[in-house]
Design a protein that fits this description.
By secondary structure, the protein is mainly α. The protein has one domain. The protein has helices at residues 10-32, 38-58, 63-70, 74-87, 90-102, 105-118, 121-126, 135-147, 170-173. The longest helix has 23 residues, at 10-32. The chain is globular, with a radius of gyration of 19 Å.
Length: 184
């Protein structure tokens, strides 16, 4: 959603992005800290939501800041992913999936964790799954879909033509009861 104002100040948008990056780092530390409680985490999340929403409201005016951040350091990539996922715009969703597929492992992980917090149904439907998807990308897609399950009307995980007869799921498809792994 774009709020139409005569001029978006780039310095204010940059401040939102930088604050979102700092809060991402703070949230990561809070998750690992034995002293952090749920209330502290909720406060950080509320502040992150506010900054992500501000960038989402700027719409296309924020894109020149967000697109390069997706390829930057993990906190910057996560912040940009949160902001773009908050837009719930198809173009932003496609850009996010493309960034996920092209990112290095640390950045891919940060983008995936951001998706777990903010991925909408449209983004969840675009997440890559299937035999040709690299395992690291498919694992992140699965984690996001499990986390965001209540809102995701995701595509089926099985191939369109059903399980192959030689696959592990073929017996289930024919109504057989699976045997424990040790009995195989």
């Amino acid at each position: 959603m774009l709020v139409d104002v005569p001029e978006w100040r780039r310095d204010i948008l940059l401040e939102h992005l930088e604050e979102l990056e700092a809060l991402w780092n703070r949230r990561s530390r809070a998750l690992r800290s034995p002293e952090a409680d749920a209330l502290a985490l909720r406060r950080i999340d509320a502040r992150m939501d506010a900054h992500a929403d501000a960038l989402a409201l700027a719409g296309e005016h924020a894109w020149p800041l967000l697109e390069p951040a997706l390829a930057g350091e993990p906190p910057a990539a996560a912040a940009a992913a949160l902001a773009l996922a908050s837009t719930n715009e198809p173009e932003a969703d496609r850009a996010l999936v493309s960034a996920l597929e092209q990112a290095s492992a640390p950045i891919r992980s940060a983008i995936g964790r951001a998706f777990e917090l903010r991925a909408g149904a449209g983004l969840c439907r675009l997440l890559p799954l299937g035999p040709t998807v690299p395992p690291a990308v498919a694992a992140i897609s699965c984690a996001v879909l499990v986390t965001r399950r209540p809102i995701a009307a995701a595509k089926p995980l099985a191939p369109a033509d059903g399980p192959r007869p030689d696959s592990a799921g073929a017996g289930l498809a024919r109504g057989r009861t699976p045997r424990p792994c040790a009995a195989r």
